[in-house]
Each structure stands twice: as structure tokens, then as C-alpha cells.
Amino acid sequence: MASHSNYTTAPVSEFLLICFPNCQSWQHWLSLPLSLLFLLAMGANATLLITIWQEASLHEPMYYLLSLLSLLDMVLCLTVIPKVLAIFWFDLRSIGFFSCFLQMFIMNYFLAMESCTFMVMAYDRYVAICKPLHYPSVITNQFVARATIFVVARNALASLPVPILSARLRYCAENIIQNCICTNLSVSKLSCDDITFNRLYQFVAGWTLLGSDLILIILSYSFILKAVLRIKAEGGAVAKALSTCGSHFILILFFSTILLVFVLTHVAKKKVSPDVPILLNVLHHVIPAALNPIVYGVRTQEIKQGIQRLLKKGW
Length: 315
Prior knowledge:
The chain has 12 helices and 3 strands, in the order βααβααααβαααααα. By secondary structure, the chain is mainly α. Strands 2-1-3 form a 3-stranded mixed sheet. The longest helix is centred in the last third of the chain and has 35 residues, at 196-230. The radius of gyration is 22 Å and the shape is globular.
């Protein structure tokens, strides 16, 4: 039997990422803003991390959590965007079997860790505004260390089954992925086996992790709003806490809005082009990463001053 590029009689050893099947003519144009966003994300997060590391005044729990967020953003960008740009520029569509499932794991794991980090940051802001006298004793370096271990362990346990379940399936025919990245459903639907359990696990795990984080974030901010409305005369510490609270809330909006639009387009996939969810999935790995450090850099005086001092040292 003759072998073809997208069908094989042997078990699949690599996949082909088609990216935007209906709009391949404008992929080169999309690569320009995408590469600029990627450079901005990497540069801004690296600057933020170096500033927090160099400035002793920023060695506080809140900024350690922000450093963790920056690290997660950088890993997500590096996992997705270089491969997408390689497809756009050099038509390097093939991705090895192991590499595909590794990318799948990192995407699921680090997005879940990012959501969990936002939840921890919301708790940090809740204590800062609702229980300011207890803040120094509650939000300590030990709290950040324990929270980081929780973020890493919880999401590893919940995310690891996704690529394992998908990799255990038999791939014996088609190997063309109608996507720019190795998402669980894009890959597993190419299998010869039944993928009902894979779909169910992704749905339950995703909504359990992201849903519980979102509920706790909403609860934290409802308590914060209630406390703010009760405050008659704001002191300097409260004003500072509210400022960083606003920055944090904007970051959550970046993260959750694109995710929500992505989910809605999947639900209404018959009414929108199949390229739209693919594009949103790619952008969700770079837009929040590019904007998060800028928001904190612009809105937080201590970080702004730290960056200015860092630039002066560089000159």
C-alpha cells in the first residue's frame, strides 16, 4: 500500500500542524504582530524579574508572587510561540510524537498554575485590605514558599493525566492536526480509539481547577469591595494596597476574558470560522504575558522606580 503524507500504515511517529487551514494566505502577515508581541512579552517579563531580583525594596511576598507569574508567562510563550512562528516563516509543520505531548502537558500545567497564582495573589490583596494589621504576620516569605509548592503540586497532579491519557491512545492513520499547537482535543480526535474519557477528564479537571480559582478570586474581591466601601478615610497603606489591587484585577481580566471568548467560540463553533478558536488559543499564550508586566510596571510606583534605577545602572 502506498504511503501518503497524512496517512501511514505504521504507528504515527510525528504530527503535522496545519495551523489555520482556511486562511493560510495571511499567515505571514499575522507573524509580524505575533513576533512583536513575543519579543515584548519576553523583554518585559525579563526586565520585571531582573528589577525585582536587583531591588532590595522589592523583596516582599507580593513581588515574589508577581515574579512567579512572570516566569509562568515566559515558559508559556516559549512553549508555543517559537513553533508557531517557525510554521509561519519556514513551513516547519512537523512535530515529534513526544514533543507534541510535552507541549500539551506544559500548556495545561502552566495555564492551571497561572490561574492558581492569580487566586493566591487575590488572597494576598484580601489580607492587605481587609486585615491590614495581620498582613505582615500572615503574608510572609514562608507563606509564598508554601503557596508556590501548592501551586506546583496541585496543578501537576491534575494536569499530568491529560497528555498521558492522550499519548496512550492508538494513532494509526491520520496525523494532521488542524491547529497551531498540540491541544488535547485537536490531537486525541485523530486517534483510532474512543476519546470520550479524554474529553470528560479535560472538561472536569479544567472547570474544577479554573472554576474553583475563579470562585475564590470573586469571593476575595467581593470582600475587598465591601471593605473599601466601609473605609471612610483612606490611609497611605490602604491607598497603596488599592492601587496594586487594581493592577491585579486588570491582569485577571486579561487572563479570563480571552479564555472566556475562546470557550464561547468553541460552544458556537458552527457560527464562527474554525480559525477563530485557533487564533484565540495562540493569542492567549502571548497577550496576557506581554501586558501583565507592563500593567504592574506602569501602575506600581515601586516597580517603576526600580526599573528607572536599573536603566540608570545600565547606562
